[in-house]
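New to this. Explain the following:
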Amino acid sequence: MQGDSVNRPQQFDAGQRPRWDLLASLAVAFGIAEAVVVIHLRSFLDPNGDRFPRVGFPAHLLRPEQIREAATLVVLGAAAGLSMPSPSGRLAAGLCLFGAWDLVYYGALRLMIGWPRTLGDWDLLFLLPVPWLGPVYAPVVIAVTMVVAGGLVLRHEAHGSSFRVRPWHLVLAALGGGLCISSFLHDLPPTALGPLPHRYPVERWIAGLALGLAAYAGAWRLNIRRARPAVPAAVASSTAGATTGIGPAPRESRSPAPR
């Protein structure tokens, strides 16, 4: 009698392509859910809509909201970690998921409540560990950059070649990300109603983006060089000799002269 094929355990194929449609659905669903939660919070904290984002969170709501934001990031990170076998692929999937989630969030808010009116409107971005404030265009540009950069890495790995990075690429990217994040941090208490910052430090944001893009460009050039087929030494030597006149001359095919 043959073995039970129904209950036979299946081996996981590390090279199996992930279901990008499911990952995209997750990003869209979480972006819409984030927008709905923010709409409820705004209707409770700012019923007239004339104070946002200069709203003060009550102490009994601040900590639960921070926990909810952290849980959302954990879910997105876990989904990215399960989607790809390589560390670079997981990081790229995380960039795509986070960027798509943020873009869907703003798109859903625009469709449901007509906000943001312009990309220059200020927004309360995060509450972890302190409030993040900035114009909408800043996180939107970062999100688009994350989706494009992560998507290109995933496309590279889909052709069977892992995406390599050097330590200095990671250091430069971390410095750029830190500058972008620091541009959103302001000395404002989360539980009190206060004025918006006088101005957004856009030069710090631009510098952070430039460092991140420089790190990405360096890593991309490295992987493009790795992907080029190596030329055998014998072929390279004969080619150099034919073009420069140095090296063994090619043999001529001659018929024997008549005697």
In short: Residues 20-227 form one domain. Residues 87-113 form the longest helix (27 residues). The helical segments are 20-45, 59-83, 87-113, 137-158, 167-184, 202-227, 233-244. The CA atoms of residues 241 and 247 lie 5 Å apart.
